[in-house]
Known about the structure:
single chain, mainly beta, 3-stranded antiparallel β-sheet, elongated, binds zinc ion
Amino acid sequence: xxxxxxxxxxxxxxxxxxxxxxxxxxxxxxxxxxxxxxxxxxxxxxxxxxxxxxxxxxxxxxxxxxxxxxxxxxxxxxxxxxxxxxxxxxxxxxxxxxxxxxxxxxxxxxxxxxxxxxxxxxxxxxxxx
Length: 129
Ligand SMILES: [Zn+2]
């Protein structure tokens, strides 16, 4: 569309190269980093030093680093103890339709588990299915 060489924003800061095609001509737009070469868009890694804690822009990742979103189906990767339930949640239990929350004590997933009901889990104990 005739904008070759012109990148919005003017100053190209220290943005990471594109993880898809390694292009260095990435630029920032609406909190995303955009690659003009292949069209890939991604959320830049939170950079320490700004100190800004942007409310509502949290990225929640599973045990292996996949980014989770509302409505995802995940699998519990390790056995979890549940208060009042002798067997607890077994590793491999599928959890459908999770909701990301800002829970207490690092519990950032709100969900329902068959046989257990409403439950909050830590994203570090699940893997995107
Ligand atoms: Zn690219």
